[in-house]
Amino acid sequence: MKISAQSYYGLKAVTFLAKESRVFSVKEIADGERIPYDYLEKIMQKLTRAGLVTSKRGSAGGYSLKRPSSKITAKDILTALDEAILPILCVMSNKSRSYCIMEKTCLSKNVWQRMQKAINYSLNSITLADLVYVNPKKSKR
Amino acid sequence: MKISAQSYYGLKAVTFLAKESRVFSVKEIADGERIPYDYLEKIMQKLTRAGLVTSKRGSAGGYSLKRPSSKITAKDILTALDEAILPILCVMSNKSRSYCIMEKTCLSKNVWQRMQKAINYSLNSITLADLVYVNPKKSKR
DNA sequence: ATTAAATCGGACTTAATAAATCCGATTTTT
DNA sequence: AAAAATCGGATTTATTAAGTCCGATTTAAT
């Protein structure tokens, strides 16, 4: 199993935005979070299309969160970028890839389903606000 | 995110073994679960080295579970095959890949950690016995 | 008006690695 | 001795993610 760089970068970018509610250019984010500029550009566009951030074009343009950080979950970000959190043939809704013939009798499928549920539950419960307004005992920087 | 074919096949193979406690050849498993023979051979060897199945060489040889199916978890299988359930740089114990410089201040790291926990908890709670002796009424969810 | 600084979209290239295959050696049963 | 297995290492192939590039468009500031 593996988390894509897109999710990894994307979540970083979006928490960066969540720290201050203003417009940030891709350059600012890329520098701040050390993400390859061109790649991040693509990621931000994806997030825009998914309705999670808004873009402002032209000079002095950039990106900002579309909703308050408390209304955006980690799950929102990851599904926007990776489209399937757990792309296992028999669990996926999108059956684009080779379809499992044994689906009906497959015992191990239960594992993927339960795992899927656990992941969804976990990710749905984390908002960007949770990440940014972190427990102050830990650090105040 | 993605589950490797190895985990996918491996779990299938091992649930296959769990259904009957005798020795199965790779050929039997491969045919039964429709897994590429040569590839499955490798997977079984990995599981053997991990101490989850035992192999018997020579004619009439094959593989069987090393422990009772109630003592082997889905987590056991997946970690044996994929070595890291969630290979995210900042969460991985093995820092072989490019190391995250911002580890200390990284906010999004919390997501990966929580997710990791949720996955581990889920997978640890599923034994092969659970999968094989499935509740006939399917009321247990 | 012109220029500079952005996003946008699509095409392309590169790199990584998973997936699959192949082969010869060894072990064990019949 | 032959047949049926596992074993282990090397190799090949395929997939796709990751990253790059370029030209078009939009917008703000000078």
Give a quick set of tags describing it:
DNA-binding; 141 residues; two-stranded antiparallel ribbon; 6 helices; elongated; 46% helix; mainly alpha; 2 strands; Arc Repressor Mutant, subunit A; homodimer
Question: What's a quick, concise take on this entry?
Answer:
Two copies of one chain form a homodimer. Chain A has helices spanning 5-18, 26-33, 37-49, 74-82, 109-124, 128-132, and strands spanning 53-56, 62-65.
CATH architecture assignment of chain A: Orthogonal Bundle
Rg for CA atoms of chain A:
17 Å
The helix tally of chain A amounts to: 6
Mean pLDDT of chain A: 86
Walk across the major sheet of chain A and give the strand order: 1-2
CATH topology of chain A: Arc Repressor Mutant, subunit A
List the helices and strands and how they pair.
The structure is a homodimer of 141-residue chains.
Chain A: H1 5-18, H2 26-33, H3 37-49, E1 53-56, E2 62-65, H4 74-82, H5 109-124, H6 128-132
Antiparallel strand pairs in A: 1-2
Helix pairs in contact in A: 1-2, 1-3, 1-4, 2-3
The structure holds a DNA duplex (30 and 30 nucleotides).
Describe the protein in words.
Two copies of one chain form a homodimer. The first copy, chain A, is mainly alpha-helical and 141 residues long. The first copy, chain A, has a single domain, classed as Arc Repressor Mutant, subunit A. Chain A is 46% helix and 6% strand. The first copy, chain A, contains six helices and two strands. Chain A has a two-stranded antiparallel sheet with strand order 1-2. In chain A, a hairpin with a 5-residue loop joins β1 and β2. The two termini of chain A are 33 Å apart. Chains A and B meet through α1, α4, α5 and α6 of A and α1, α4, α5 and α6 of B. The structure holds a DNA duplex (30 and 30 nucleotides).
